[in-house]
Amino acid sequence: MTTTNTVHAFIVPTTTTTTTNNLNSNRHHRIGNRSSLSKTSLHLLKATTTDTTTTTNTSTYIPRISSQDLQTLSKDGYVVIENFIPSTDNGINLKEALRDDILNLRSKSKFKIAKIGQDTTNKLNEEIRVAETCFLGKEKPELRNVYNQRREQLYDLLEFLRIDLEENSNNGNSIKLDQKLSEFLYAYYPTGGFYRRHRDAVKGSVSYLRQYSLLLYLNTDNYSSDKDGGQLRIHFDSGKDFLPVDETPNYIDINANGGTLVLFESSKFPHEVLNTSSERFAIVGWYNRPMSFTDISSISSNKDGDPVRLIGLAVAAGLVTVGLINILGS
Ligand SMILES: O=C(O)CCC(=O)C(=O)O
Ligand SMILES: [Fe+2]
């Protein structure tokens, strides 16, 4: 397994209130392009944001993925980056702050027992998954009154990743990733939690728009897989939700150490979360390609063709962003 800990970073002015950062517009203001960055050390670049709100003097650090890690993702279909979020940056412990955000949101009943499955078959199934989740997003009404500056920083980090993934050409093809369709959630696994083997992108369902799966672990510094379990197991056999009877298991186990970032092509790898022996904190996400007419017809022909049902599918698959519903509803 290839793991690296090279991290590039972006400094973004800290905002004091919820903003509508337009990070896309920064692309033209960025200092150099990715390929011009040195690959050997931490880079701190000044970002020109288009915040409409006041900014304070303190800066926050946004870790960026290196071109080397992007290449590994293109070549192998997955990449594991340890210490993507460093322990502290400028005295700020982002992992701890986001972990605290999870605990605070749980105490305010913002987490739900996680559901499994795609489309309208989405149902509670404790044999497959024991975890709690809270969907994230600047526009999520349920989170508006629980503002957290570090969560806003996380949104910036996730959006920079989308831009970097989009710019990265995958086997010579650059893949468009629709900002409006990005899906992110906090996942909390209690002691005794797990998520059995599954796929994130299933053909014929809205989840098939998922191009890249993202996992960013927020576990404490003394979390260790030997004592705490909770490894992410990525399978390389040719099976879907099960290992084919005539194949031997072929997988890697990734330790869910705090700060580790995992990215993989959503349609390629079945995966699972091994049993946890202590609480486990993660950010889970998917970068989706834009929905095309082909997708709409393949999803609808697979079902009953009713556009209302397609909207239902989008919601059930977690694609609850207004953008997708607008597309499907139009
Ligand atoms: O928490 C993890 O490591 C993986 C979660 C996952 O696979 C999912 O939510 O689809
Ligand atoms: Fe998954």
Short description:
With 330 residues, this protein is an alpha+beta fold. The chain contains 8 helices and 18 strands. The chain has one domain: Jelly Rolls.
Task: For the structure shown, list the relevant keywords.
single chain, 330 residues, alpha+beta, Jelly Rolls, 8-stranded mixed beta sheet, 5-stranded antiparallel beta sheet, 8 helices, globular, disordered C terminus, binds 2-oxoglutaric acid, binds fe (ii) ion, iron, L-ascorbic acid binding, dioxygenase, ferrous iron binding, oxidoreductase
If you had to describe this structure to a student in words, what would you say it looks like?
The protein is α+β, with helices and mostly antiparallel strands and 330 residues long. 24% of the residues lie in helices and 26% in strands. Helix 7 (307-316) runs antiparallel to helix 8 (322-329). The chain is globular. The relative contact order is 0.16. The structure holds 2-oxoglutaric acid and fe (ii) ion. Fe (ii) ion binds next to loops. 2-oxoglutaric acid is lined by residues 187, 195, 200, 215, 232, 271, 273, 282, 284. Its cofactor is L-ascorbate. InterPro entries: HIF_prolyl_hydroxylases (IPR051559), Oxoglu/Fe-dep_dioxygenase_dom (IPR005123), Pro_4_hyd_alph (IPR006620), Pro_4_hyd_alph_FE2OG_OXY (IPR044862). One of its GO terms (biological process) is cellular response to hypoxia.
